Amino acid sequence: MKDKVNILGVNVDMLNIQQSADRIMQFFNEDKLHKVYTPNSEIIMAAYKDPEFKNMLNNADLLTADGIGVVYASKFLKKPIAERAAGYDIACEVLKRINGTSHSLFLFGGKPGVAETAKEKLLEQYPDLKIVGCRNGYFKDEEDADIVKEINSSGADLLFVCLGAPKQEKWLAKNGDFLGVRVAMGIGGSLDVFAGTAERAPEFYCKHGLEWFYRLMKEPKRIGRQMALPKFAATVLVHGKKFKQD
Ligand code: UDP
């Protein structure tokens, strides 16, 4: 666990965007499912309160720091993560690398039509990308088996699961054993960004760790969710050092 930092019981990889993409490219060489999640402080707080969810995160093959709060926590715990490695950014780097190769992608999640629009927009940016399937993220539990079948019969080896946290992690914990893909990335609202139905914060805000502030200005009703950030900071300050770092 030399290369991981234990943040309130969640073992986060100390990797930046490029290193995370390197790791994912290696995952393609192993014939098994690799799960990739990118927790922010809200998700780590949820895992701190829910041992089952915490185990789901710790069972991932790659767990990166999606949020400035997680980066600061790693510094406070003396195992510094160099930069935020957001799911969206890692996904873009992986897409750049697989464009024009034999790897193929399935887009799962978002409101009806979002995955299809994301596909169109992604193909404008990465014209040689093989996108072999799309499925919206609104379904009943009984449909799980059909969704797994659809993904497997597409032949994809990369799956974006964009159901938001913790739904995407729970879906993969339940259905992962039946999937034929080699890499499944739980990357929240990324399909909305690819599709252009949601905006990412301008670079200035991302660079200065202020994306949360930008999102709050755009969507003031997120205030409830964002209260997780100060709670997370206080919990790390008070309890963070009780968690053993190997
Ligand atoms: N979503 C979904 N199915 C659901 C609930 C949510 O596909 O049952 C999608 C939703 O349309 C959105 C994404 O999951 O595209 C969640 O976005 P959000 O920004 O809330 O997630 P975060 O990136 O913050 O985890």
Annotation keywords:
single chain, 246 residues, alpha/beta, 6-stranded parallel β-sheet, two-stranded antiparallel sheet, 8 strands, globular, binds uridine-5'-diphosphate
Give a nutshell description of this structure.
The chain is an alpha/beta fold. The chain has one domain (4-242). The chain has helices at residues 17-27, 41-49, 51-58, 68-76, 87-98, 114-125, 144-154, 167-175, 190-195, 203-207, 211-218, 223-226, 228-239; strands at 4-7, 10-13, 34-37, 62-63, 104-109, 130-135, 158-162, 183-186.
> What's the story with the biggest beta sheet?
6 strands, parallel
Helix content: 40-55%
Strand order of the largest sheet: 4-3-8-7-5-6
The number of distinct β-strands equals 8
Alpha carbon gyration radius? 17 Å
* Head-to-tail CA distance between termini: 6 Å
The hetero molecules present are: uridine-5'-diphosphate
Structural class: alpha/beta
Shape: globular
Number of domains as seen in the coordinates: 1
Tell me the β content. Answer: 5-15%
Name the helix and strand elements from N-terminus to C-terminus, one letter apiece. EEHEHHEHHEHEHEHEHHHHH
Summed up, the helix count is 13
- Give the integer mean of the pLDDT values: 95
User: Which parts are unreliable, with pLDDT below 50 for 5 consecutive residues or more?
Assistant: none
